Amino acid sequence: MKSLYGMGWALAGLAVNYHKLGDFEKAEEYYRRTLEVKRKLGDKRGAAWALNSLGGIADMQGRYREALSLEHEAMTIYEETGDRAGFGDVHYSMGSVYFYLGNYAEALKHYEAALAVARETGDQRFLGRVVSGMGSAYSSAGRTDLAEELYRE
Question: What are the tens digits of pLDDT across the range 24-48?
Answer without folding.
Answer: 999 999 999 999 999 999 999 999 9
